[in-house]
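[step 3/7] inverse_fold.run input=structure_tokens len=93
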């Protein structure tokens, strides 16, 4: 699924257009802007310190964090947050 994310680490924020995937218990963010895509985040879901689903200016959002890093995944397309919710539920079982 493709959407926008905001990654904050060590006080610096980065906004990206990414492909979001949940593969083998990992959440993977791949930056797809520009000519070459590159994977810039791959975290085991079980290692995340916190996760929350909420609303942000009328759209749904998934946020998670680990140590000094936090990430907000915005609902910029149909079913992005639903996809993440269902994938995370399967990992939790």
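[step 3/7] decode complete -> sequence:
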């Amino acid at each position: 699924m493709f959407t926008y994310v905001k990654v904050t680490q060590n006080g610096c924020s980065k906004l990206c257009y990414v492909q979001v995937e949940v593969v083998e218990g990992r959440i993977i963010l791949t930056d797809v802007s520009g000519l070459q895509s590159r994977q810039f985040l791959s975290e085991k879901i079980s290692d995340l310190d916190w996760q929350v689903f909420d609303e942000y200016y009328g759209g749904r959002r998934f946020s998670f964090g680990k140590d000094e890093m936090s990430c907000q995944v915005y609902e910029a397309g149909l079913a992005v947050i639903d996809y993440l919710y269902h994938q995370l539920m399967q990992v939790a079982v």
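[step 4/7] annotate
The chain is about 15% helix and 60% strand.
The first helix runs from residue 80 to 92.
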